[in-house]
Amino acid sequence: MPSRPESGTGDEQWLPVRPRLVVASAFMLFLELALIRWTGSNIVHLSYFTNFVLLGSFLGIGLGFLRVGRSKAQPYYSPIVLALLVLVVLFFPVTVNRETEGVLYFTSLSTSGPPAWAILPVVFLAAAIVLMGPAELVGRCFPELPRLEAYRYDLIGSLTGIAAFSLLSFASAPPMVWGVVAAVAYGVLLQPRKLSNYLLLVTLPSLVVVAALGSETLTAGALWSPYYKVTYKRESYGPAPALTISVNGIPHQQAVPAAARLQYERQYAVPYERATSAGRLDDVLIVGAGSGTDVAIALSKGAKHVDAVEIDPKLRELGGLYHPDQPYSDSRVTTHVTDGRAFLERTDKKYDLILFALPDSLTLVSGASSLRLESYLFTEQSMKAAHDHLKPGGAFSMYNYYREQWLVDRLASTAQAAFGHKPCVDEVGGGQQAVITAGVTADAQRCASEWAGAKADTPPPAVDDRPFLYLHGRDIPSIYLITLGLVLLVSIVAVRAVAGPFRRMRPYADLFLLGVSFLLLETKNVTGFALLFGTTWVVNAVVFAGVLVAVLAAVEVTRRFRTPSLPVMYAILLGGLVLAAIVPNSWLLGLPVPLRLVCAVVIAFLPIFAANVVFAKRFADAADPTISFGANLLGAILGGCLEYLSLIIGYEDLLVVAGLLYLGAFALLPRTARAL
């Protein structure tokens, strides 16, 4: 039996309100995650700025809620704009013009396709409009249910969306599958008033999306890992066969025979020349093993056992299938598909040689932070962990194409701080191609010449709290400041155009600040768990799901039990923030993994739980559920912009900013709500 008419539409919905709310919420989150992944794989500017798509999504979701009651039309604009976005991105991709591997600074290289100032606004606005459609469908369900019950089903749907996208990532499903999910969701949620219009406005755009994404998958021959769009082609490397691998349109690796690599590129031989332990390589650890060339070289140098750590399962798979030397088939090799820093923190094994072999991820951990997959590898604490995993006489070495002299000096001075003596520094090719080698003691290395030391303007070593290796100064780059300023300006104009006068949201200023601070709290948790348990996609998905579970638990407790008053809950929230601030990650890293997990969950999710009890109590009492919820979501846009403060103050001090914002929310709490 159909539910009663949907608020504000006048249409009879064939799907009852509760399952409709769950489906719409799941689709909304699934679509957000898919847009972040897919646009970043084709627009190289987004490889380090996925936060841009996230901000557009927050804007669209907030506008969707604010639009409820202002229009009776179905949001047919969403599938149409999605189809147009897919076509624009496929016809005008942005890739790097480079023919060799080792890209570190793609922004210093030329790109093909539209410039950033042209394509980024298109992606931002399109993401906002696309997400506004599902959000409007979610928002229309809220007036039909009690407040907290509606919020409960919204959270259940969001968890379902995360689970669905994570399962597809695990299965390496191509974007065509994401397009099919979107087509089915649009078909289920958008009601046909007139069949001809429905075919034109829903079915046709959905077919365009599925066909375009299917064509991309088939023509590019792409593999979809949880991190990248991976493409590859057979080539030659001198007289030797090779496999060239690109990720997200950026040439990334070559699977080359060890003998050929050693013959043509000196950097691969240098670690074995500098380490006195090279004559007795019983155990070798390679972080960033990739398609296997560094593993093959270690075996050719006499390694008796190699632990090969690679975060991306598809790069490892390609190496196993196509590397000419077949190093991964060697019985002396053990593969670990995980984050390199996490492996160092978990293993008790000691090594004769540890190599960081061109670990450059070319992507961010998630849309909620400025953290790259390898950021925690290059901190002073990480190199100290490498030092602690060396046998007597062992050595650590790292190499890459660094492109900037200050970056070579920064990494060398980081090794010096971690090992207590100067490392060997060999600059062996163009593009600041360099090898940095440090023995566990000074006697465990043999340098060709003494390193002169870092220049006066070299930044200090990166640390776990501020792991931004490639940021020269303690500031926010101007490109981010300009872009974020434009994001806020566009958001203000869009909210005014869609929702009308801002005075409608004025009573919910405290809910707006709750949205700002919650986004900062979420960012701190994402980055904290990445350090404690690895920057893998699994950890990232579990953290986001855990946040939603904590929010859902807060809603259920608020629905079923009498909770303390809002002033008391704010006190508990601030107490949780203080606890999180005073317990250092270094202490948690020293705990066994099971105990570390328990402590991390308690410390991280206590303030999240308390913050959402505050929100649930306030939301249940709000006069207008859609306006109040929209104001909270729009606050997340400002929170996403403030996340870039971490580039200056570090991740730990984001808790201070969040605490001040929560105090501001309490100050703006209406007097009548304080007794809730």
From TrEMBL:
UniProt organism field: Sphaerisporangium album
InterPro entries in UniProt: SAM-dependent_MTases_sf, Spermi_synthase
Cellular component terms per the entry's GO annotation: cytosol
Keywords: Membrane, Transmembrane, Transmembrane helix
Keyword Transmembrane belongs to the record: yes
GO molecular function (one): spermidine synthase activity
Protein name: Spermidine synthase
Pfam families: Spermine_synth (PF01564)
Residues passing through the membrane, by range: 21-40, 46-69, 76-96, 116-138, 199-224, 479-499, 537-555, 567-589, 595-615, 627-649, 655-673
A biological process term (GO) from this entry: spermidine biosynthetic process
